[in-house]
Write a structure and sequence with these properties.
- By secondary structure, the chain is mainly beta.
- The protein contains one helix and 27 strands.
- The longest helix is centred in the first third of the chain and has 6 residues.
Length: about 290
């Protein structure tokens, strides 16, 4: 029933289904394989999903404080994503978790509640899906907030030739209509829509924002690094690393951030926005952000 390590659930779906207003923490140890599609979690209360356990702790204080020790949810390129339908006034927190190999996305959040992710990695999701916005994380919910701090987004990309008119925006993160997306001390590494079209010439489809694509959502980033995020098939104006679209992005800022070898292979720019008021400041300091240890 999930009340002790001896009686722990063997899969993440059962743990999510068991969440109640009073049983609202999920502790994860080791690697949990999940090659199945998950039902969405609609939390009845604030929920915390924690990794980094060794299956011998009786209290949170017994867990190794080293944040580099994380648990893994592996969707095996077949299952996922971790679906979170967070109501207004509710919050789901995720910490010290690796979310990898989601068939389309790693994490998929909807509704008006808050998502907070810390000390985690979102890696190699959506590699074989034909259609998926936000291979790493897809975020929606009018006026909601999402925060990622000390996280690594790596290798969330399309890796197969395609020949359709679908949209594949946002390799690491796709955010639509959020009140604010906050990115703090995080690394975006080799994400993208690095896909070749089966049709001749550059693919005239919606491939943009290899790391982050935000539409109608303010993005506030600090201390982040964007490296090797590439878009090779695109519409006019798409970018290698970041793409901001719509008036809702007004007030976005990227402070003490590094853009390094991020590439749009037609327009040769790592960053673009649909209106000048969308971005207040972009800084490129000599200090280099790094992956979470």
């Amino acid at each position: 029933d999930g009340t002790s390590w001896t009686d722990a659930f063997g899969d993440i779906a059962s743990a999510l289904a068991a969440v109640t207003a009073t049983k609202n923490e999920i502790w994860v140890c080791g690697t949990v394989e999940c090659p199945n599609t998950l039902m969405p979690l609609t939390p009845p209360a604030d929920v915390v999903i924690r990794g980094g356990f060794s299956a011998d702790e009786d209290a949170l204080e017994d867990r190794d404080p080293d944040v580099s020790k994380r648990a893994t949810i592996d969707f095996k390129d077949q299952g996922g994503p971790l679906k979170l339908a967070i109501p207004s006034g509710r919050k789901v927190s995720i910490e010290r978790l690796n979310v990898v190999h989601g068939a389309e996305n790693g994490i998929y959040k909807t509704d008006a509640g808050e998502l907070y992710v810390a000390d985690s990695t979102i890696e190699c999701n959506g590699l074989y899906a034909a259609y998926a916005q936000g291979r790493g994380v897809n975020l929606a919910g009018s006026g909601s907030t999402a925060t990622f701090t000390n996280c690594l987004f790596a290798g969330n990309a399309v890796c197969q030739p395609i020949g359709h008119t679908g949209t594949l925006n946002g390799g690491a993160i796709y955010a639509s209509g959020l009140g604010c997306l906050r990115l703090i001390d995080s690394l975006f590494l080799t994400n993208g829509v690095a896909v070749t079209s089966s049709r001749p010439g550059p693919a005239p489809y919606g491939y943009g924002g290899a790391a982050v694509y935000a539409t109608g959502a303010k993005v506030v980033a600090s201390g982040c690094a964007f490296r090797g995020n590439v878009a090779t098939a695109h519409n006019s104006g798409t970018t290698g690393a970041v793409r901001l679209v719509g008036a809702g992005c007004a007030g976005s800022s990227f402070v003490n951030c590094v853009f390094d070898i991020d590439e749009d292979r037609v327009f040769a720019t790592p960053f673009s926005f649909s209106a000048p008021q969308c971005v207040r400041s972009v800084s490129r300091p000599s200090a280099q952000a790094s992956a979470p240890s």
